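Our platform keeps sequence and structure together, in a single record for each protein. This encoding replaces a full spatial description with a residue-level series of whole-number codes. We quote a single record here, exactly as it is kept in our systems:
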Amino acid sequence: MRAQFVLSEIGVGLRRNLTMTFAVVVSVALSLTLFGASLLLSDQVTSMKGYWYDKVNVSIFLCNKSDAQSDPNCAKGAVTEDQKGQIKGDLEKMAVVDSVTYESQDAAYKHYKEQFGDSPLASSLTPDQMQESYRIKLKDPEKYQVVATAFDGRDGVQSVQDQKGILDNLFGLLEGMNLAALAVMALMLIVALMLIVNTVRVSAFSRRRETGIMRLVGASGFYIQAPFIAEAAVAGLIGGALACAFLLVGRYFIIDAGLALSEKLNLINFIGWDAVLTKLPLILATSLLMPALAAFFALRKYLKV
């Protein structure tokens, strides 16, 4: 009987405040969609870091004849065979180095032609203008500075470059976008909480006569509050279900179909469906508990008679 009463009161409350209930559902749905999207973006960045950091190399570019005339780092002339042998030997002795690959001027020229063959500059370059280099794979990509300190400014070395720095800029941009999404989510969440509180108070005010009678006949505070808390929880749960649907559709549209980024950007290891599905219970739990707690604390003071 009590459960039937609570359920009937939920239906009455939702119908009486249909406009505000709709606003609560939409605001909860949008805020939790942004919350879920930020979690997924964080997973994507972590996945990309693990994938790409494992593939980045440190490159030691060696001085050639043209560098000796134009680059202060190569003022002592082009690299000699002895210097190359010493550099390679020192690299192989370093504990942080996993492997060392030598790239000759001819190989560098061939790679350049493969990548930038359509460039107007490509027709004017010759192999002797290209730089020899050592490509070093590190056991830990974070240890780049160890190699840079040991070889930067050394005779025969034009520069030491770390590909990780390029990736750090990309990941910094993605993490900035993630923070922006979290900020918007926090704002939407505050709006949703304010709407929930106002909706519950309006509902309680419209039924103040019934609640007063229930007080007089000895009904407990929780029994009086239960329908209002349940109304907020149901509205929030509907919003949470919509947020889950938005995330599923969004993942499918952006990665699998529509934009089809998995086909267009096949070098990126995109997150799978398991990453999305594991976030849905958290979103649904948040959508249920957040409005219920907001309604509970909003009613504690309001229903005291």
Q: What stands out?
A: The first strand starts at residue 58 and ends at 62.
